[in-house]
Design goal:
The structure holds 2 protein chains of 2 kinds.
Chain A: H1 3-15, H2 23-34, H3 39-49, H4 53-62, E1 74-79, H5 82-86, H6 89-100, E2 113-118, E3 130-132, E4 135-137, H7 142-153, E5 183-185, H8 198-204, H9 208-217, H10 230-239, E6 246-251, H11 260-267, H12 269-283, E7 287-292, H13 300-312, E8 329-334, H14 344-351, E9 375-379, H15 380-392, H16 394-398, E10 408-415, E11 421-426, H17 431-438, E12 445-448, E13 454-456, E14 475-479, H18 485-499, H19 505-522, H20 528-544, H21 548-552, H22 555-563, H23 565-569, H24 586-597
Parallel strand pairs in A: 1-2, 5-11, 6-7, 6-9, 7-8, 10-14
Antiparallel strand pairs in A: 1-3, 3-4, 10-11, 12-13, 12-14
Helix pairs in contact in A: 1-3, 3-4, 6-7, 8-12, 8-15, 9-10, 9-12, 12-15, 18-19, 19-20, 20-22
Chain B: E1 7-12, H1 18-24, H2 29-36, E2 38-39, E3 54-60, E4 63-65, H3 66-78, E5 79-85, H4 87-91, H5 103-113, E6 133-138, E7 148-150, H6 157-168
Parallel strand pairs in B: 1-2, 1-3, 3-5, 5-7
Antiparallel strand pairs in B: 4-6
Classes of the chains: A alpha/beta, B alpha/beta.
């Protein structure tokens, strides 16, 4: 056992107070130094924290960005969501693989570079994209991929791959990123000028109960997609029993096609932090956590800097805004590549230093959340809305949008449209009008709300974007007439099969069954019965899964069955003779045997 | 035997005959059963080939080789209603545990490397009498259309009795919770 490793583990664990609930930070920090969290390291960490090896190992094995086996000094992760694929990610991946001389998932012999795929990294408006260690590289093509591979093989640092910076704060010295914001339409709530502290001042002039009343009056609903009334959630949190309360900001923007929080985090983090601080005041909490997805690690130094500036201004810390006794501070918890952690109870598990497993509900986080204390978990955009509501008044906010959905919504649009990017639009806009804004009016299909949302066709373009009609956390993916709808749905099912945490059977097994039947139909081996089977199985998975992932994962199949049934039916041929199922091929089933035994079948020798 | 009674056929494919034992477990009700039906192709009466159209076919076991496939196909052709009886027919069961092992490794273990194997030539048996194995074990409904599944390992005799009598007397199949509860 090497002494230096033991010393590193000891010092890292001490830095986090030998606190098991900070496991994510501990293993991330050690991996950063060592390249991986080796088997030996797992034991050392467990020893240092006074816990079992399995607790450490279950965390390291759960997250895509953590590894117990050594990887290259640089890990290139190519985004493989459907939009990136449409924009040529396959060719980019092949170019990387060829230039580096490795297979996908492999590491170069000199141990310099590992090549992997990763689900949506929130760069669909500038696809194909990849993250190289923490550095996002966007608008890739084959020749750029080859050039990058060469630089990395020669030992070039990932940060040096960035030669031009994106707009706004992407060019900030602490970000220095080539990511562009692509904010195409600014609105009054999120993308407007804001003076730090103005909303806090107004909130602190009221009692916490009055703040919650104002948030209720504004009719603000959660911007992550589920649309739970924010004021009500805060009220529950405030009135649940507990010594300590927490405010958590869900910045684990993992729904493929969603990248609106990226622009908020880059351009208006102050507004978000202000909203969190107001939430702290309203629910009676002194501690906030931003759960930032691992893919957005490039924004971490910048966000830490914004936080320290707010501390200097007295907008975080003790006696905030001169209010005696009101203390609140925020820490940033990094994720490590797990879609499920966008689900609030899984996110809480992750913050507590565990696998990102969802928890049973009830108790709801507002009753027993982070470390079993009352916790409000809200979306990045929700906190921005809160700050603006306190600043401008609940009436001002409530009069915007539609009947059941007040205010504006950030939509991130990508795919077959001329102006991919982020739009702040009032709720209630029709999908058709929105597509015109984004230059996607020729769409044959639009996925609203990401893979867990709905695939709709032109017949539904008159529907409105709001919680009661077409609900979305922000993702709008546009597909032109030349795209194969079922291949897109199959891609989404691959995603859910990969991202299911595996805890409950309906989600772990049901999604695999749906995936298999969909592939079968795409292969021309499906039968009409398979459609009924998929409908029933999909409904069962929705009904019986434990968390939001499984409760929405059959949607790619169910919504295409509903809105694009002819796309399935044309692939279904007449039944084969001999009573066999269309998917069964006796000669194929006997193929291995015939080869091994060296003779033909005596029964099926046609 | 009267000829106007509906006929029942049964087969055990890649199973252990446990489901057939469970059929026999209906005990003296078998006397009532033969008042209702005639048995056609079945190990119960050792009739080897179908003698005519059957109302119900009960299939135990999944398909692990071409002979299983042929028998199942034959049942589909001759039976109005085909039932997967028990875990192996429905899911592949114990035999399907080999599905994660490549066929060559299965052969090597069985005919070359197994601790009790004596096979100096190292050849795999290739007698045409021995049916070829399928690349994996298939549940019956992946090979032909199956109409019903009766789960259990084996399904209890009372469950088989309730299902069969309901089908044969044209009544809805009612399986109370106790008959389909397995834990």
């Amino acid at each position: 056992m090497s002494d230096s490793l033991a010393a590193l583990v000891a010092s890292t664990c001490e830095e986090f107070g030998n606190d098991r609930t900070r496991m994510m930070d501990i293993v991330r920090a050690i991996q950063k130094e060592e390249g991986c969290v080796s088997s030996e390291t797992l034991d050392l960490i467990a020893g240092q924290l006074g816990t079992y090896r399995v607790e450490v190992e279950s965390v390291v094995s759960f997250y895509a960005f953590l590894s117990s086996r050594p990887k290259g000094e640089v890990v290139v992760r190519i985004c493989d969501d459907i939009i990136d694929e449409m924009k040529g990610a396959e060719n980019v991946a092949a170019a990387f693989a060829e230039e580096l001389g490795v297979e996908m998932g492999g590491t170069t012999e000199d141990g310099k570079v590992t090549l992997e795929r990763t689900p949506c990294i929130g760069m669909c408006d500038q696809a194909p994209a990849a993250i190289v260690n923490d550095v996002p590289i966007t608008n890739l093509d084959e020749s750029k991929a080859r050039a990058i591979a060469k630089i990395l093989q020669e030992g070039g640092a990932p940060a040096h791959l960035v030669t031009t910076f994106g707009h706004g704060n992407n060019a900030n010295d602490l970000v220095r990123s080539m990511v562009t914001n692509n904010i195409r339409k600014r609105g009054p709530v999120v993308f407007s000028d804001f003076s730090s502290g103005s909303a806090i001042d107004k909130a602190l002039a009221m009692t916490p109960a009055e703040v919650i009343r104002d948030v209720k009056t504004s009719r603000l609903r959660g911007r992550g997609g589920a649309g739970f009334p924010t004021g009500m959630k805060w009220d529950f949190t405030r009135h649940s029993t507990g010594d300590k309360r927490y405010v958590i900001c869900n910045a684990d923007e993992g729904e493929p096609g969603t990248f609106k929080d990226r622009t908020i985090l880059t351009e208006c983090p102050d507004l978000m932090f202000e909203g969190m601080t107001i939430a702290g005041y309203a629910v009676g909490s002194d501690a906030g956590i931003v759960y930032l997805r691992g893919e957005y690690a490039y924004l971490l130094p910048f966000l830490e800097d914004v936080l320290s500036k707010r501390r200097e201004k007295g907008l975080l810390g003790t006696n905030i805004g001169g209010k005696e006794g009101f203390a609140f501070d925020i820490r940033i918890q990094m994720g490590a590549g797990a879609y499920i952690c966008g689900e609030e109870t899984a996110l809480i598990s992750s913050c507590e230093g565990q696998r990102g497993d969802p928890k049973n509900r009830p108790p709801f986080p507002a009753q027993k959340g982070y470390l079993a204390s009352p916790t409000t978990v809200n979306n990045v955009e929700t906190f921005c809305c809160v700050a603006r509501i306190l600043d401008q008044g609940p009436g001002w906010f409530a009069q915007m949008g539609s009947k059941g959905s007040a205010g504006t919504k950030l939509l991130s649009v990508s795919g077959d449209c001329t102006s991919p990017g982020v739009y702040e639009v009032p709720f209630g806009i029709t999908l058709g009008d929105f597509l015109k804004l984004a230059g996607g009016e020729n769409a044959a299909a639009v996925q609203v709300g990401g893979p867990s949302g709905q695939m709709v066709g032109p017949d539904d373009f008159g529907k409105t974007i709001c919680y009661d009609d077409l609900a979305t956390g922000g993702s709008v993916m546009v597909f032109g007439p030349h795209r194969n709808i079922l291949e897109i749905a199959a891609k989404f099912m691959d995603f859910f099969v990969e991202e299911s945490c595996g805890y409950c059977t309906p989600c772990r097994a049901g999604n695999v069954l749906l995936q298999g039947h969909l592939k079968r139909i795409l292969d021309g081996r499906g039968e009409m019965e398979d459609l009924d089977y998929m409908q029933k199985t999909g409904e069962t998975v929705k009904l019986t899964s434990r968390c939001g992932l499984g409760q929405t994962s059959p949607n790619p199949v169910l919504s295409t069955l509903k809105n694009f049934r002819p796309a399935y039916e044309v692939l279904i041929k007449e039944k084969k003779e001999e009573g066999f199922k269309a998917a069964f091929d006796i000669q194929e089933a006997l193929g291995d045997s015939k080869g091994l035994i060296g003779r033909e079948s005596t029964i099926y020798n046609d | 035997m009267s000829t106007d009674k509906p006929k029942v056929a049964t087969a055990s494919l890649a199973g252990c005959f446990g489901c057939h034992m469970s059929i026999l477990d209906i005990d003296d009700r078998i006397l009532q059963l033969i008042d209702l039906v005639d048995f056609d192709k079945s190990p119960v009466d050792d009739i080897k080939e179908f003698t005519g159209r059957c109302a119900v076919g009960l299939i135990e076991g999944g398909c692990c080789n071409e002979e299983n496939v042929r028998v199942l196909q034959d049942f589909r052709k001759h039976c109005d209603v085909l039932i997967s009886l028990g875990e192996c027919a429905i899911c592949g069961g114990i035999p399907a545990m080999r599905n994660n092992v490549p066929l060559k490794e299965c052969f090597d273990e069985a005919y070359r490397n197994g601790p009790s194997v004596h096979n100096p030539s190292g050849e795999y048996p290739s007698d045409p009498e021995i049916p070829l194995l399928l690349n994996k074990v298939y549940p019956c409904h992946e090979v032909v259309k199956m109409d019903y599944h009766l789960q259990g390992c084996p399904p209890p005799a009372d469950t088989i009795w309730a299902a069969l009598t309901a089908l044969l007397t044209d009544k809805p199949v009612e399986l109370p919770y106790e008959l389909i509860k397995y834990d």
